[in-house]
């Protein structure tokens, strides 16, 4: 009696090597066998109507490879649950997390491309700065040499001027006597 109460829990599954996982029922009841036969006939009719369905062809190949009857395969609740899950898109936290990761990777790729462009632009600017510095140094050297030349000419003029003054003053002193 306690075993019957235990087997009466809703959602309880039992594994039978011939049938696979199935809900636990009182198999002595005749209405269960009748409902199993009706469901098998419905499945056979729908299989004939949708012969080109890949789900049905996969189910048929599974039946043949396992050597089980169609009623046994179609009533395997785990197989039915698996096919239902395959037809439904995943609705879990991982899918949302992967979407966020994909968006972040796309954003990262865009930022990395932008960073490469900015680095190239910075390298151009740095090269322009180096060229400008070299031009400024070259111009400063030219100005320095021009200034040195002017300074040497000014010294030469000053020396010539001082020599001319000394000679002129000595001649003027000599002629006045």
Secondary-structure map:
Layout: H1 2-7, E1 13-16, E2 20-23, H2 30-49, H3 54-66, H4 70-74, H5 77-87, H6 93-176
Antiparallel strand pairs: 1-2
Outline the structure in words.
The protein is mainly α and 177 residues long. It has a domain at 2-87. The protein is built from 6 helices and 2 strands. It has helices spanning 2-7, 30-49, 54-66, 70-74, 77-87, 93-176, and strands spanning 13-16, 20-23. The chain has a two-stranded antiparallel ribbon. The relative contact order is 0.05.
- What ranges have pLDDT less than 50 throughout 5 or more consecutive residues? 27-35
**Overall outline:** rod-shaped
Q: What is the average of the pLDDT values?
A: 76
β-strand amount: under 5%
Radius of gyration (CA) equals 51 Å
Q: Summarize the biggest pleated sheet.
A: 2 strands, antiparallel
Please identify the oligomeric state: single chain
How are helices and strands ordered from N to C?
HEEHHHHH
Q: Going across the major beta sheet, what is the strand order?
A: 1-2
Q: Number of DSSP helices?
A: 6
Distance between the termini: 165 Å
Q: What is the share of helical residues?
A: over 70%
Structural class by secondary-structure content:
mainly alpha
What are the key terms here?
mainly alpha, 177 residues, two-stranded antiparallel ribbon, 2 strands, 5% strand, single chain, rod-shaped
Quick description:
This protein is mainly α.
């Amino acid at each position: 009696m306690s075993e019957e109460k235990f087997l009466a829990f809703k959602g309880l599954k039992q594994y039978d090597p011939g049938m696979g996982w199935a809900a636990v029922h009182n198999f002595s009841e005749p209405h269960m066998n009748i409902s199993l036969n009706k469901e098998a006939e419905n499945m056979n009719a729908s299989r004939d109507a949708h012969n080109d369905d890949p789900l049905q062809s996969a189910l048929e190949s599974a039946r043949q490879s396992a050597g089980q009857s169609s009623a046994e395969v179609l009533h395997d609740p785990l197989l039915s649950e698996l096919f239902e899950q395959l037809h439904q898109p995943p609705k879990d936290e991982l899918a949302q997390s992967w979407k966020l990761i994909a968006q972040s990777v796309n954003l990262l790729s865009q930022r990395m491309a932008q960073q490469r462009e900015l680095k190239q632009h910075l390298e151009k600017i740095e090269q322009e700065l180096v060229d400008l510095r070299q031009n400024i140094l070259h111009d400063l050297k030219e100005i320095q040499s021009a200034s040195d030349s002017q300074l040497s000419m000014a010294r030469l003029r000053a020396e010539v001027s001082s020599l001319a003054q000394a000679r002129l003053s000595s001649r003027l002193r000599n002629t006045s006597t």
